[in-house]
Design brief:
The complex is a heterodimer of chains A (about 290) and B (about 200). Chain A has about 290 residues and is an alpha/beta fold. Chain A has helices at about 40-50, 70-75, 95-100, 110-120, 130-145, 160-175, 190-195, 215-220, 230-235, 255-260, 275-290, and strands at about 5-15, 20-25, 30-35, 55-60, 65, 80, 150-155, 180-185, 200-205, 205-215, 220-225, 240-245, 250, 265-270. In chain A, helix 4 (about 110-120) runs antiparallel to helix 5 (about 130-145) and helix 5 (about 130-145) runs parallel beside helix 6. Classes of the chains: A alpha/beta (about 290), B mainly alpha (about 200). The interface of A and B includes residues 85 and 103 of A.
Chain lengths: ~290, ~200
Amino acid sequence: MSSILELKGVTKRYQDFALKSIDLTLERGYIMGFIGPNGAGKSTTIKLIMNLIRKDSGEIRIFGMNHEQDEIAIKQRIGFVYDENHYYEELTAQEMKNIIRPFYKRWDDALFNKYARELALPLNKPIKQLSKGMKMKFALIVALSHHAELLILDEPTSGLDPVIRSEMLDILRDVMQDEEKSIFFSTHITSDLDKVADYITFIHHGQIVFSHAKDELLERYRIVKGDKRDLLEHRSLFVNVKEHDYGYTALTDNGPEVRRRLGDSVIMERPSIEDIMLYTIRKDEHRDVHIN
Amino acid sequence: MYTLIKKDFLIQKRNLFLSAFIAVLFLAAWSNVSLMFSVIMVSYMLVFGASAYEDKYNSDKLLASLPISKTKIVFAKYLSVYVFAAYALVLNGLIIAVFDVLKLPITIPPLTWQVILAAAGILTVYTSIALPIIFKYGYTRSRMITFILIFVLMFGFGNAQLDTLLPTSESSRLIVLIIGVLLLLAVSVWISLHIYRRREF
């Protein structure tokens, strides 16, 4: 069976920014976290997947179909949540829902009402009077009410308080009980992914740095603390090194090798996804520092 | 397509009320062509009011993400012009009836097929020019051009009499005129489709 989402060599060039040959694959039944700093290309990638912008080259297949030729059939099976509200704010949630409903063949009003009750969404208030968290909940409920097989979420949790974030994540976990579904979830709040993601794809400067199973990632990567004397010889083992008066702290993507070469002279800790992201991003900045 | 047009009405509850005042104003202020002007102005206000809301909330991105073909979105927009014009016509009819009942000293030319045809013609010419611009640049960026254009068209025809506008005596000229306007509309739809399919959101 084909992957639910597949990008092969996808490029998109702007005057001041470019996505360079994006490859990624998401299988059915998994959540992929899509991380990277602001401006790394997360939203551009999601716009390409949703066919809101045209790619320069490469191939995008969703449910095994061509994302341009079969656009409408694909979108019947996609639920989306964007970082900003795009609904007509003059309308109430109920009115907005009634506008969206006819477009989806598999719209399920009972399901919509169930989620609206669970998340305490006020249906009869104009959307503009809802808090940011409520607007996001509404968008999520709409995305979930037509039995979508693939959810595309672009920074759905940014700017939300921890309580609402955790409520939203609970719902996503609940959705994933169905093993036929997948979620593609972009965020810069990596702690959300510690809880729910199966795969992590990291994009930086328009390029995929890695795309791996989260467990494998957390197994291979290690924060290493050691003495500066070892550093010269073994620097190549590290993704990035922070030096300080007493020694260094570094990130390696090859924990076992560090252990083999440096043994007990270093302390090794499991990194969080945020650690991995931050060390990798600062690699470019720190290189200059080391040369001096 | 029906839902898309219904949506254009729903999001403009306030404008629908406001349009009644505009209609009263136009009916009371002008004489000869006031009814035609009123129908055109109300249609203009509602068609572009819908686009203004779309721009304000960036809802194009929402529509483009839903399973709706871009062709339908474009067709619905053109069709909405005539649905709004029909609404404007009914609205004006009602207001004239109220004027009548109140015996207000305002004389309004009767609603004839010439008035309807002239209004439809001017609206068609107008939207044929304006909609491709809006599909290309969005409402906000093209609002100056579209605003100036409606007044050029209105005042251009404002001094003309309905008789000279529509040569009722010569039906062959009228048919040529209608065919010309319809051709313009077809070309406009074709251009809009081309633009909207390639638009980036």
